[in-house]
Request: fold
Amino acid sequence: MKITMIGTGYVGLVSGVCFADNGFEVTCLDIDEDKIRCLQNGQVPIFEPGLDTLVDRNVDAGRLSFSIDFEQALHLADVVFLAVGTPSRPGGGEADLSYLFDSVRMMTPHLKDGVVIVTKSTVVVGTNQRISDIIGDINPSLAFSIASNPEFLREGCAIDDFMSPDRVVVGVQDQHGEQILRKLYSPLNLPDERFVVTSLENAELIKYASNAFLAMKVTFINEVANLCEMTGGDVSQVARAIGLDNRIGPKFLQAGPGIGGSCFPKDTRAYAAMGMKYRAPQRLIETVIQVNEARKISIADQIVDLLEKPINKTVGVLGLAFKPGTDDVREAPALTIIPRLIENGIKVRAFDPQAMEVAKSKLEDVTWCDDAMSVARGADLVVVLTHWDEFKTLDLGELAQMMTGHIIFDTRALFEERDVNAAGLDLIGVGRVSSR
Reply:
């Protein structure tokens, strides 16, 4: 089968490359000429461990190509995946589906009979039916199947998530669509219970409900962390104990500076907006959104308070990406925390192993450092915002010598207090009371 993946963002590129690695002929299609040119020259525009190797291997094997030509990329395609961004609309938070529908209008004249159109973009209920209606209006004689196949890829380990998924969800309207999707995923050898076949509407809801629940879990443990700080508890011990309950589980119970990234913030907003639209308010998720935004601001305010007289003080920031293993800074806590520090007269020095270039276009008045240790030079306080492994192995004694102050604010529980204290520094963490 020939696959065309429309959209070479994070989801489209990773999915297209992985399908090619499973033996299918894949064309990745995009209207961004610069991005396609980079990919054709072997330059991968996003950081995802192992992705560049897979791109090179499958291009060399002749299974993977990149194009801006809709007619050339689509006229022989048996399966077309839609992996176009669905960002939040300003104001209400509804998903902006305009890019998706524009892609549908552009592709329809070039489709062949029997094609299966599969939506991988995160979309609200009813979107796939609307796609079907648009195609039918443009080309009433076209025979096609419509399907929904939401993605569950975690940045930093997306290739493993694709190749060894917890589950594959496919929403279909007919047997042909189901058969094609089963063939596409057959190389993964999934047991039947992990290949979920359902309706279009259920598939659309499953994606949003999954992300909303995980965001709620993270927000819950951050609320527990606040309570621990006020009562003398330790959130890491509380989280470990409740995570041993099989009904709860340990994942997404790490307290931190708030939720970021390309999925959780926008998907929770869209999910809440969808609830309001259909008169079924999702009040828990509405609260999650409010608490998460307040969380980032409160972390910044804690730093200001720790400095006591913040004007012209210096803060070193370790980590800009919303999580390790990616260069993605979309809605990362750093994008809220750093500007708020600067507004309070604080000078900011920052470093991230992968996200520096992306962050430079989004943050102003920051001194960019070449490595993690340089962040501490002259710093009155060093704050950890991303839990990169390389930060764990920093020489804390050398860090202390470079600092003017003596506080490490560790929002990611990277360091042990005894190690920090042994270096002559004080450790402030989330969800625990410092011995300072």
Remarks:
- The chain has a mean pLDDT of 96.
- The two ends are 63 Å apart (CA to CA).
- The CA atoms of residues 282 and 434 lie 37 Å apart.
